[in-house]
Amino acid sequence: MVRSFFWRKLLARSGFARFIPSVCRSLGGGEDFLRYYSDCALAVPIDELRDPALLPDIGTPNSINLALGSPRIDLLFGLGRAVNDRRPDSAWGDIELRSEIGIKLHLDHGVEYDSTDEVLIAHGASGAYAAVLDAFVNVGDPVVLFDPTSPIFPIGLKHRRARLRWVPTWSDEGRVRFAMDVFAKTMRGAKLLVLADPVNPTGCVFAPEDLEQIAFWAGKYDVLVFQDVSFDRWRAEPAKARLASLPHCEERILTCGSFAKSHGLTAARVGWLAGHRHLVKPCAAASVLSAPFVPSICQQAALQAMRNCEAVLSELATDFNTRRGYVLEQLNAMGLQPWSASAGFFCWVPVLNGEGGHTFAQRLLSDSGVLVNPGHVFGPSGTTFVRVSFATDEGRLREGLNRIVACGVARARYAASAGVITSTSEAPAPRTPIAA
Asked: How far apart are CA 362 and CA 355, in angstroms?
């Protein structure tokens, strides 16, 4: 498929697209309909959306899925009130659910939001993110991203034809590290900063001193901030600082979360967005025009999960902390050198011998029936990484790691005995702090 928007538009508007074999193969006979497409539709990164690495899944017998993006949790609760076939009372969402989210944000992040017009219920965190992009991002706007990051972030920006500015990162004992001078340079003239804390796919968290610098540079260059805290529940330790409560961020930050990630309610597709009312209102308008009214029954399920399932979720968080240490230990024993992590339920793992992450993941699946996430969908640096999730049950996790040993380490040892370099990783660039 043609990657450049300019050439896509030219081929579509001129009718020449029907004579390009790659376009015909990609569209499957739809090239004659391109003349109807809007510029926004032509900008969609079709190849990336169709990449099976974006939402990998397997259903073959005896396979093991170590690519789960959400925890599988058996939550037992009743809805507690009658459910009927009607849309919610407000396009903003159930007021009781918004109130509970507001209380949780105050307890965890130290910020107070009015649930009536500063908390919005959306179709998952991706729906909240889409509303933010529709409300604030124009064609050509520079947007800053940390690399690696959730694939939905760059895909959404490419759809709006924004200009991506990447900031490389590395892990230092489970904390996100990046060159502050590089970050400050990318923030100059940017419209939006997009980040997740904790980070998917690395399981790292931002250090308090770095959050202060992020807030400072956002204020200095008048950059809006979108923060995804969907994996916040799965921290090894409580956060020592919160971006939303720092000076320079009070009236420029929008925070979102997902009940799929925090409560395992993947099928419900309930997310939320919170921030200053004059930032949330245009997002609510964009959401109403594109994907309004999250079903009432889904919102009620999310509300009951918040009210009644804290004990189950706290127990699982403790279990994840134990698993994280075990998985990191096992991967290190294999010689895979995963990044240190302190949150989430996944590990970011560089592959051996210079082998690409996509090739490694395919080989692992075909040879052992173990599915992991190829790293290329998470950002420019991910081409030589895979993400290993430990959200599956303990027995299958142990079996999956044993299969990785049988499949991967034997090959690594063979390469080492043949004199092949088994690691291409390099130390990160020296950190250059800049005082606010």
From this structure: 11
Rounded CA-CA distance 19/105 in Å is: 54
Average pLDDT over residues 200-216: 97
> How remote is the C-alpha of 94 from its chain's centroid?
25
Rounded to whole angstroms, the Cα distance separating 27 from 42 reads 12
- Taking the C-alpha atoms of residue 414 and residue 405, their distance in angstroms, rounded to an integer, is 13
Nearest Cα neighbor of 111 from 203, 227, 265, 23 is: 227
Tens of pLDDT, residue by residue over 226-249, are 999 999 999 999 999 999 999 989
Is the CB of residue 346 less than 8 Å from the CB of residue 200?
yes
Q: Supply 123's token pair.
A: 């179709």
Estimate to the nearest angstrom the gap between the alpha carbon of 119 and the chain centroid: 21
Residues 6+ apart with CB under 8 A from 169: 146, 147, 148, 176, 177, 178, 199, 202, 204
Q: Could you give the 3-state DSSP secondary structure of residue 315?
A: helix
Output 199 or 285, whichever has higher pLDDT.
199
DSSP strands (E only) in 181-315: 192-196, 205-206, 224-228, 253-258, 271-275
Helix segments in 292-392, DSSP class H:
296-308, 310-333, 357-368
